[in-house]
Amino acid sequence: MTGSGRRRATISQVAEEANVARSTVSRAFTQPERLSDETVKHVLEVANRLGYTPNPVAQALSTGQSKNIALIVPDVANPFFPPLIQAAQRKAEEYDYCVFLGDSDEQPERENQLVERFTHQVAGLILVSSRLSEAQVREHARRRPLVLVNQDFPEMLRVLINSGAGVAQAVEHLAELGHRHIVYLSGPATSWANRQRRTALRQAAKHHGIEVSAVAAHKPTHEAGRGSAHQILATGATAAFAFDDLLAQGLLAGLADAGISVPRQFSVIGCDDVLGATTYPPLTTVSNRCVEVAEIAVSLLMDALRTRAASDVRHVLDTHLVIRGTTAAPNPALHRRPAGREGQVVQRSN
Amino acid sequence: MTGSGRRRATISQVAEEANVARSTVSRAFTQPERLSDETVKHVLEVANRLGYTPNPVAQALSTGQSKNIALIVPDVANPFFPPLIQAAQRKAEEYDYCVFLGDSDEQPERENQLVERFTHQVAGLILVSSRLSEAQVREHARRRPLVLVNQDFPEMLRVLINSGAGVAQAVEHLAELGHRHIVYLSGPATSWANRQRRTALRQAAKHHGIEVSAVAAHKPTHEAGRGSAHQILATGATAAFAFDDLLAQGLLAGLADAGISVPRQFSVIGCDDVLGATTYPPLTTVSNRCVEVAEIAVSLLMDALRTRAASDVRHVLDTHLVIRGTTAAPNPALHRRPAGREGQVVQRSN
DNA sequence: CAGTATCGTGCAACCGGTTGCCAGTCAACT
DNA sequence: AGTTGACTGGCAACCGGTTGCACGATACTG
Question: For residue B263, is the peptide bond before it cis, meaning its omega torsion is within 30 degrees of 0?
């Protein structure tokens, strides 16, 4: 029974009903210590009776600070992001903030548009796996506090998942199993994570004296992974490390299509552990920390909003290898003949 | 080069620079036909030079209408929702609206809180698979235009996925394969979709003279599905229809754990087709229409915002069965002994 | 007991737009 | 020539809050 029903009560109505000035009502909510306990109690009681809640839009206009934040991701439907989005949303809720969600569809222009559109209405933004140029990001950061997730520009607020650690473990794991030639199924070229993983892979491989080939997937999707199977096999490698689990899962399907048994004939490792143990066989992968990442990003942003100072934070979360069922020792006998119809020419990517 | 850099230009600055009143600047943007072409051109040019864009917060306060909408879902991480969220967001963008995302975690109280929090700042809301009571929803709908997705309350705006058609086809499919006893692995009790599917299943089963058991999953998750395997087997059914794909996928895993081979020993059908062909074996399931649903919901909401009349719309989208690899004829010989350790007592759900 | 902090509250301006109303201009119509 | 009406654009109030400043009252100082 909040009473009124129709229109929401305003501060003026409360003020009138309580026989005080509007400023007093305002202060009863925002700085009660400046009023006598008596007054606060009275105002709050009246406000409650009228079902009054401060209008956040008016507050935002008046203070120039809204209790909203924006979260922009490249692809909501990519399973890496939903848990992150969820965690961010919940964390923001703890601070009593609402979150705008934007999906850039991996396109820098759209990302830019979204930022532009949001920037008026939010206190700060979180850009996840931003595809924007450094200059653009800096431009936006000048207007509003901005936290980067999985993008590493100096002197900004950023939280990074260091897949490097997990990737190194993955390579070591493969080396121990006896693999001498592996292939990296890469992700979006503009992705920081992609560069990071590729670099870590190369480095670790070098360390273990393992040969590395590379195959480019156009998009990090199941389909792209599936479609890359022939190219992967054509490299002559005995194991693949995919940029992410989706690609890995797709590759699994592609390999199955080609009659290749995993892990008996070919090993596959994913990254980000977004599928858990839901693939068949359950995917060996590199752990992710997306829930923590989201929480840290939100906290960082909240801190930045409080202390209006733009600081330089680089929060790195390590990862590790999660060994499940898609890796095993290479089988030289089987590998000689990559299966599939001999006549089929493996296409080179453009 | 939008110039200013620091603070964003305001309408007053533009007015001053252009030697016109603030109202003229305002009208140049909102009702240019009320001004001479000359003036409009001049104002727009000055505005552009100053990098001015109307402040949506001020607009919202002044007009009482923001260009934001809220989208509330029960669980962002449930793969059914991300494509829907994505589609809704993109569609809203077409109309130049921003979307707030809320995750109710399947809890009515949280959903209520979210609505409460959003309602000030948005022009309208979309509630997906709302867990709220009819009274609560109506209460909210009185304040703001509101569209329901997969919840069916009379005389409101709602868009529904009629899984019924697909469910009927699923039962028919099982009947044709020779199944005589199936089990429904149910979803959230408060879910409209759950009731709908269960009812459709019962009806179709009756029609085909098939016996139906039921097992309740606590939450529509992979884990819940996996954990229900023993209960499912204990029913003596030869096939299961799961409330959704996640449960089905989990059930697949649980059956595998129990040493049951799908579809040779047991058939499984999911619902919503959120996993595509990514399970092993690829899941037979009922198609979903979540992208269309989202687009229709947004359009409906936009219409409602334009014509301020609260109308009664019931938009239903039909579905169909997608046959993949988890259904086959029952195998009586194998079914006699449900596998698993004999000593293990199947637990009854509470 | 005058002089000065301190406290509690009100006044009024401000945030950045929108919009009803009014006035001036000019062409068209009796 | 006087009236009417369309067309432009300005004035000022308003949306619902916040906040710097002032002012009266009370408490504290010497």
Answer: yes
